Amino acid sequence: MFDWQITDHKRLEQLEVRHAQELFQLTDQNREYLAQWLPWVDSVQQPDDTVDFIKQTQKQWVENQSFQAAILVDNNIAGTIGHHKIDWQNQKTSLGYWLGKSYQGRGIMTKCCSEVVRHAFNKLDLNRVEIYCAIDNKKSRAIPERLGFTQEGSQKETIQLKDKFKDRIIYRTLKSEWNSSA
Ligand SMILES: CC(C)(COP(=O)(O)OP(=O)(O)OC[C@H]1O[C@@H](n2cnc3c(N)ncnc32)[C@H](O)[C@@H]1OP(=O)(O)O)[C@@H](O)C(=O)NCCC(=O)NCCS
């Protein structure tokens, strides 16, 4: 289990069942806004659904497949960030993230993403990190763009959100491309 200080006010804590109630509340309070972009939101209807999700992330951690962390801002959960799954054979991973609406606009996710990418290259020795965004998710796309990722291409009608198929943009950075000061 890890607890990772990012700045004086922000830290990442590996998701544990003790986070479930607060994380569920944040999800529930931000349901409408999150569901625009995250297909899993409707499946989270009660705190036990968040407990199940956290247990699944712990299993993946034990199996060395990924980590998922709560982002804490002044000790309150603001959102989450983590790997979808690490592909050790090809030394690559992709990142997923979200913030409660009121935590947007302060650079919190850009900073956390930058730290998680740095960790992927320097500590996990991965070679490639990807971020996938729905084509019209401007705020999410701004994060890899701010961090100097390369837009590699798009996939037609790959994500279904609110009964609509959307194109997805793929961003990547490689260990050889990553600017550690980003
Ligand atoms: C995607 C998401 C995390 C982006 O949140 P965000 O607050 O825009 O991202 P950041 O925390 O990096 O903040 C960037 C904003 O803070 C501002 N900012 C302030 N200080 C900053 C700093 N030091 N560094 C970077 N940006 C800073 C930026 O200008 C930007 O604001 P703008 O959009 O008005 O230009 C959020 O919108 C979200 O959770 N959406 C729903 C779920 C989702 O879409 N997840 C991704 C699925 S692919």
Structure description:
This protein is of the alpha+beta class and 182 residues long. The chain has a domain at 3-127: Gcn5-related N-acetyltransferase (GNAT) (Aminopeptidase, 3-Layer(aba) Sandwich), CATH 3.40.630.30. Helices cover 30% and strands 33% of the residues. The protein is built from five helices and eight strands. The chain has helices spanning 20-29, 31-35, 47-62, 108-122, 138-146; strands at 3-5, 10-14, 68-73, 76-83, 92-99, 128-134, 150-161, 164-174. Strands 1-2-3-4-5-6-8-7 form an eight-stranded mixed sheet, sandwiched between helices. Strand 1 (3-5) and strand 2 (10-14) form a beta hairpin. Helix 1 (20-29) crosses helix 3 (47-62). The longest helix is centred in the first third of the chain and has 16 residues, at 47-62. Coenzyme A binds next to strand 5, helix 4 and helix 5.
Strand order of the largest sheet: 1-2-3-4-5-6-8-7
CATH architecture of the domain at 3-127: 3-Layer(aba) Sandwich
- What order do the helices and strands follow? EEHHHEEEHEHEE
- Unreliable spans are none
Count of beta strands = 8
Q: What are the bound molecules? A: coenzyme A
Shape: globular
Structural class: alpha+beta
Residues in helix, %: 25-40%
Distance linking N and C termini: 26 Å
Largest sheet: 8 strands, mixed
> Which CATH first-tier class of the domain at 3-127 would you pick?
Alpha Beta
Mean pLDDT: 95
Helix tally equals: 5
Radius of gyration: 16 Å
The CATH superfamily of the domain at 3-127 is: Gcn5-related N-acetyltransferase (GNAT)
The fold-level CATH name of the domain at 3-127 is Aminopeptidase
The amount of beta strand, in percent, is 25-35%
> Could you state the oligomeric state of the chains shown?
single chain
